[in-house]
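Z., the sequence and structure:
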Amino acid sequence: MAQTPHGVVVDPRKLIVGGCVAAVGVLVLAFFLWMVPTAAARESRAACTGMQSHPPINAAVCPGGGTCTYPIPAPDFTAYDHDGKPVHLSDFRGKVVLVNFWASWCGVCKTEKPHLEEMAKDMAGKDFVVVALASDRNWADVLDAITDALAPGVKVPEGKDATLQTALAAYQQGLPHGTSFQVLLDPPKGDDNIGQIAASWGIKAVPESALIDRQGNLVHYFVNKRDWQTPVAETCLRSVIDE
């Protein structure tokens, strides 16, 4: 820059160099801002993938049968709560839903329930719900199993003493505020052990869990039990909630 009788004269070469430097700075900043969410998305996908073994999707849940890839529309179902009220999976549209398929006679399910309860309690909110779909024929068995898993200090009625009334009394004693997940009944058909809804999804053993996004799409599937309190599990679940 030089001083002349007529004012200040700016060297155009310096303007070009300065402009180039500024442009490079903007590009670097833009790249950084682009990389941050991309890296976060990769981490989230890795967390969900790390929780599962890339199980093949049951043909029963693929539209039209055959093969398909995630995400796919989750088959709607109707199950019943303890009051006999019908509840549809589609009722939760707009929320992220974790459907946990389980049964009172499943020992592995019992060990999973405390982790499921704590996770559901920690992540409770208007954007997320956990539905525990029990492959059982009656509510007495379901209540006894939940009480035994979440309130082991309470004596669960057995044999002739095992009625809906005694099961409910034990449940209310051990869990006066209920559970943080919603329990629905999925009775098996005939001599089957697996509930009719679970069977319609192609499920042959429990526990299994399906993660469904706000639009009602099945986005992740987990075979066998999981420790739902781990940081990896939370990262996976929150990645779908925050989408």
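Strands lie at 2-4, 7-9, 72-73, 78-80, 86-88, 96-102, 128-134, 182-185, 208-212, 217-223. The two ends are 52 Å apart (CA to CA).

Let me know what you think.
H.
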